[in-house]
Amino acid sequence: xxxxxxxxxxxxxxxxxxxxxxxxxxxxxxxxxxxxxxxxxxxxxxxxxxxxxxxxxxxxxxxxxxxxxxxxxxxxxxxxxxxxxxxxxxxxxxxxxxxxxxxxxxxxxxxxxxxxxxxxxxxxxxxxxxxxxxxxxxxxxxxxxxxxxxxxxxxxxxxxxxxxxxxxxxxxxxxxxxxxxxxxxxxxxxxxxxxxxxxxxxxxxxxxxxxxxxxxxxxxxxxxxx
Amino acid sequence: xxxxxxxxxxxxxxxxxxxxxxxxxxxxxxxxxxxxxxxxxxxxxxxxxxxxxxxxxxxxxxxxxxxxxxxxxxxxxxxxxxxxxxxxxxxxxxxxxxxxxxxxxxxxxxxxxxxxxxxxxxxxxxxxxxxxxxxxxxxxxxxxxxxxxxxxxxxxxxxxxxxxxxxxxxxxxxxxxxxxxxxxxxxxxxxxxxxxxxxxxxxxxxxxxxxxxxxxxxxxxxxxxxxxxxxxxxxxxxxxxxxxxxxxxxxxxxxxxxxxxxxxxxxxxxxxxxxxxxxxxxxxxxxxxxxxxxxxxxxxxxxxxxxxxxxxxxxxxxxxxxxxxxxxxxxxxxxxxxxxxxxxxxxxxxxxxxxxxxxxxxxxxxxxxxxxxxxxxxxxxxxxxxxxxxxxxxxxxxxxxxxxxxxxxxxxxxxxxxxxxxxxxxxxxxxxxxxxxxxxxxxxxxxxxxxxxxxxxxxxxxxxxxxxxx
Lengths: 226, 470
Ligand SMILES: Nc1ncnc2c1ncn2[C@@H]1O[C@H](COP(=O)(O)OP(=O)(O)OP(=O)(O)O)[C@@H](O)[C@H]1O
Ligand SMILES: [Mg+2]
Fold this sequence. Notes:
The structure holds 2 protein chains of 2 kinds.
Chain A lengths: L1 E5 L3 H13 L3 E5 L2 H10 L4 E5 L7 H10 L6 E5 L4 H9 L4 E4 L4 H15 L7 E4 L2 E4 L4 E4 L2 E3 L3 H12 L5 E2 H9 L8 H14 L8 E4 L3 E4 L5
Chain B lengths: L5 H4 L4 H54 L5 H6 L7 E7 L4 E3 L7 H7 L12 E5 L2 E11 L7 E9 L1 H48 L17 H50 L5 H33 L6 E4 L1 H19 L2 E5 L5 E4 H18 L5 E8 L3 E9 L5 H4 L23 H11 L3 E6 L3 E9 L4
Parallel strand pairs in B: 7-9
Antiparallel strand pairs in B: 1-2, 1-5, 3-4, 4-5, 6-8, 9-10, 10-12, 11-12
Helix pairs in contact in B: 2-5, 6-7, 7-11, 8-9, 9-11
The complex binds adenosine-5'-triphosphate (ATP) and magnesium ion.
């Protein structure tokens, strides 16, 4: 997967590139507007991360030009401090998602993966299998090692989220927002407790342990160090 | 485009208003006075003239009585003595002139064109002009009674040029006097207004001395004229509010600095120590993780402060929709379910409300903060109750939990930013102390209010929301 990052702030640009590369992407970096536009129009990318404020040519203009040329590459817009206008305008111009600056890297990574998945191969819709954990999405049932596991509907939703995004680190705020529709900072203890209870059901009496804690970042569901 | 006529729409200056009004009032008064005085002078002269003419007419009649047949013009000529500028004319019933003056007006034609009246009627005197001179006069018919043998027509007239000239010069003098008096009056009025404004200028100078570093200064409402007292008092009130706001802001900045300093210092120390000697990769990882957690906390705190600043600076920025509060609370109960079970407490919802207009996400955030606090401070085995009630104007939401009493002096400050009861600041698991401040700012942005009560058994937080957002 090849990504283009157009960002003029040196430090941000560097850590975004490094982070994305370590997450397994090929990353090109443009540090100003005209460069960004040139690269976006001459090469093929699977996704573009585009800053709004850029020297030479602003992000909106680049987006407009790309879309006018019929290029439907997914674009993640980086907007300045929660200015609603920027967001609305970005989405109207054809951005696929936006992220308010400053952001934490895990959030960016999560968004990038979501966008790439949206365009790519759809996830199987009726079952997910990870090791000996099986999720029947249609009937909302989980089994581990063939054993039926009783989950509340929210527990199932949580497990489904983790399973659908296997291997991704999901920040607590993202989990709260996806499972409970809590779109604001709230008591994150709740997520820890919910995960602990889920673990008790699907991991405690089984091997290998599937739910991993990534300290300071969140949780992920994956086979341990495969 | 600059508005060139803006000055026309601006209310007229106070000096202009007062001066103009005084000018108009003076003008009216003086004109009235002049009209009255000229009128009475006029009447006075008329009366004088009429009386004199009456006397003359009487003398003529007496003379006519003496000469009997009226043919003795000598007697008629002598009839009037010692009067100047007085003329009379006598004709008999047939219109034959018995006596006519040698000079003066043509009384014969005057007698012919003027209808005669009886002697008693003086008001019928007329004024006319002849050969450039002005006369007052009248025509009388006498006779037919015992004292006179025949009927006669008598015309009397006098030159009133002198009187008219007198009135004219009187008017002229009066006009000049009016002009001068007007000018003086307007000037005095203008000076009076200016002088009256001196206290305002003085107050203004004092106001100018109140810079942002001297907001504690106040103006003395007793040191200005009574008319300004109220304005000065309002000004002082406003100054008080600004001072409070300033102080709050200053305190807030100080609080922020203080609250941020502790974690940043911890991070610095930790990093310095970590770098103090070579360590294994695992140790470095451990330190980075620990730092990351601390950064996460800092980040949340900064986000909360930003949210507070935004709702307080722009309370109108609400995404208004119809919110069913019961549904919102049930959703939150679902969210807290796991935590609640682990803590061994229960959540309960009581009462009902009609839907209100508000920002759903914001209200959920406020309620979530209250519930999360309640869960933290409720002893195991107890129940937290969210209770709705409603009157015709407001919805009242209370979040009640059994727990330790919050002392009254702390209760009053509990909604302040960064305030934590009993300096719980750095106890493990405690938050930044912004939760309740956020509740307050959200509720106030909705036009509502918050309060808290606490006794030995229960701690209650109330949110009061108006049913119709004005
Ligand atoms: N239900 C309650 N019972 C007893 N004390 C309470 C209750 N709710 C709040 N308090 C006290 O009020 C203080 C302020 O609460 P607030 O929610 O503002 O901050 P916090 O919970 O400490 O931090 P934050 O909410 O920002 O994570 C708390 O520290 C606590 O001491
Ligand atoms: Mg709190």
